[in-house]
Each structure stands twice: as structure tokens, then as C-alpha cells.
Amino acid sequence: MKKDILTIMDLTKEDIDRLLERAAELKKIQKEGVLHRPLKGKTLGLIFDKASTRTRVSFESAMIQLGGTPLFISARDTQIARDEPVRDTARVLSRYLDCLAIRTYSQDLLDEFAEYSSIPVINALTDLYHPCQVLSDIMTVMEKKGGYGGIKIAWIGDGNNVAHSWINAAAVLGLYLVLACPKEYYPDGEILNNAVDNGRGKINVTDDPFEASSGADVIYTDVWASMGQEREHNIRKSVFEAYQVNSRIVKNASKDVIVMHCLPAHREEEISEEVLEGPNSVVWDQAENKLHMTKAILEALIGGRAGESDNLFSDSL
Ligand code: CP
Ligand code: NVA
């Protein structure tokens, strides 16, 4: 059975732990100069309907480094833009490709793609979630903090797609996550309630950034206006003013707090230049880990892990 990653809720704790372990191994062997080409002859399609630097290039590089071929498909140059139904596109592309990564607006559209595709479909960001981002972010947390258990993770800013994937990760992995957002920009209530009611994490939401950052081991922020919300930028700038991750917030956290941002960053908006470029910031290592985690994901989904016939995902057996 094919496996999709449309949200972190598609994965078990065991799946994520295996991906984290494998991503670390792949990073190590790459640094040692070992060539590892298990996806020779395989093709990954990337359908992108929104801008991207990191996700697009890390997926393309990951596929090339694993011996496969990435095929970038700008959504606006396809028949999708001329209203060919998603269910038709999905069935046709499944005959050409081995895996699809999709960045789009609507999670429903992604879900429809997955339903009609016979190949694995990966969420490369929607308005609702950014699961691969958070999987690679957890890899960075593990590297810097030695694990993800028993630490306080503070999300400060908009209750957006990346925040939703952190909430999902907290539920699946049992993270301690405190989100500070202006009340009108709290995360989606259904996603939050589902995680709190059914997950194993400790998840709190507040509108006080100092409560969230107090003693935090990890501080995470993201843009105040996500792609598709550009017209709200000015309104959001005034509402979010008190949520900037700056030296006052960092001083309120644990002494060796790490500051994370999925990037692109808007200096002096959600994060001060001083903090972004300062000693607590891990954003460049964080960005690098997108490559290594993507390789682990592609290897597992496309099934080319050399020398192993077992499927890496627990519900696919
Ligand atoms: N963090 C992230 O997804 O960046 P891009 O929008 O550049 O892909
Ligand atoms: N929340 C941001 C993340 C970009 C990687 C957006 O959706 O634009």
C-alpha cells in the first residue's frame, strides 16, 4: 500500500523516530562523502503553486543525491490552471512518476490528489500544515538539545500552518509546547482540541509571549502574514507587535535557549536582527536539516532503501 504524508498525524511516534534516526545517518554519510543512490531510476514530481526556496531546492537536491530525478512542475503552467480536475491529473501523473510533493493553498485539494494518486503524495506546505518542515525542525532540536522529551518549546506569533504541524507533532511525540498568539490569531480550534484530547503532548495556548518564553528551551517563530495573506500584512504588523522574538524574549527563556525560524524571516517584524544573527539562533543549521530529513522521507516513501525490504511506516505493513 502506498503511504502519503499529508499531515504529521499520518505518522506514528515510531515512524517519526525512525525518520529522525535515518535522517541523522544520511547526514553523517553525506558529510563522510559516501555516495548513496538507492533511488536510481525513480522520479519525484514537484507541483508548486506557491513560492519556495528551501523546500523546493532541498527536495530537488535530496532526490538527485539519492540517485533519482526531480521534475519541477509549476502549477500555473499545467492544465490544472485551466481547470483540469485534480482527480484526472493525479491519475495521469501517477503513470509517469514515483512520488509527488505538492505545495498549494488548500489541504482539501492535496487530500484529493492523494486519494486519486497511486503514488505517495507529500505535503510540501498548504495553508493548514507544513509537516516536512516540522519533522526536520525536530531533527535540529534533537541535535541541539539531545532529544525532544522533557524540554519546553515555545511558539511565538501566528497560529499558522507551521504552528499546526507543531501541535500535531506535540500530540504524536508527547512534546511540551506552549503557543503564544494574539487571541484572534490562535491556532485552529479543531486541530488544537484534537491534539489536546487525543494526543500525548502537553499543549497550552496563551496570548502572553512572556508566559510562553519563560524558561523555554526552544523558541520558534514564523512570519506574521503567510503566503496568501499578503493583503493583511499591515493590519497584522500592528496586532503582532508585542510578539516579536527579540532580546527581551530570549532573556526570559532558559540560558541556552535555541531560537528557530523556518525562514524566510522578516527582520524587525517577527524576529529582531540581533536575535536572528545572534548566538542563540540555529536557523542555518535548521535550514540545512530540511535536506537530510527530506532524504529520509523520500527513501522511506519511494522504498529504495538499499538492502532492506521492510517498509519503514507502521501502518503500511
Ligand atoms: N521554510 C520553507 O518552507 O521555506 P521555503 O518557502 O523557501 O520553501
Ligand atoms: N507560514 C509561512 C511558512 C513559509 C515557509 C507561509 O505559509 O508562508
Any descriptors?
single chain; 317 residues; alpha/beta; Rossmann fold; 2 domains; five-stranded parallel sheet; four-stranded parallel sheet; 12 helices; binds phosphoric acid mono(formamide)ester; binds norvaline
Cα-based radius of gyration, to the nearest Å: 19 Å
**Per CATH, what is the topology of the largest domain?**
Rossmann fold
What are the secondary-structure elements, in order, as H or E?
HEHEHEHEHEHEHEHEHHEHH
Bound molecules: phosphoric acid mono(formamide)ester, norvaline
What is the terminal-to-terminal distance?
A: 8 Å
List the uncertain runs. Answer: 306-310
Strand order of the largest sheet: 7-6-5-8-9
Strand content: 5-15%
Explain what this protein looks like in three dimensions:
This protein has 317 residues and is an alpha/beta fold. It folds into two domains: 8-129 and 288-302, Rossmann fold, CATH 3.40.50; 132-286, Aspartate/ornithine carbamoyltransferase (Rossmann fold, 3-Layer(aba) Sandwich). Helices cover 42% and strands 14% of the residues. It has twelve helices and nine strands. It has helices at residues 13-31, 54-65, 86-96, 107-116, 131-145, 161-173, 189-198, 209-213, 233-239, 247-252, 273-276, 283-302, and strands spanning 43-48, 69-74, 99-103, 121-123, 152-156, 176-180, 202-206, 218-221, 258-261. The strands form two sheets. The protein has a five-stranded parallel β-sheet with strand order 7-6-5-8-9. It has a four-stranded parallel β-sheet with strand order 2-1-3-4, sandwiched between helices. Helix 4 links the parallel strand 3 (99-103) and strand 4. Helix 5 packs across helix 12 (283-302). The longest helix has 20 residues, at 283-302. It is globular and about 55 Å long. The protein starts with 12 loop residues before the first helix and ends in a 15-residue tail after the last helix. The protein binds phosphoric acid mono(formamide)ester (CP) and norvaline. Phosphoric acid mono(formamide)ester is lined by residues 52-56, 125, 133, 262-263.
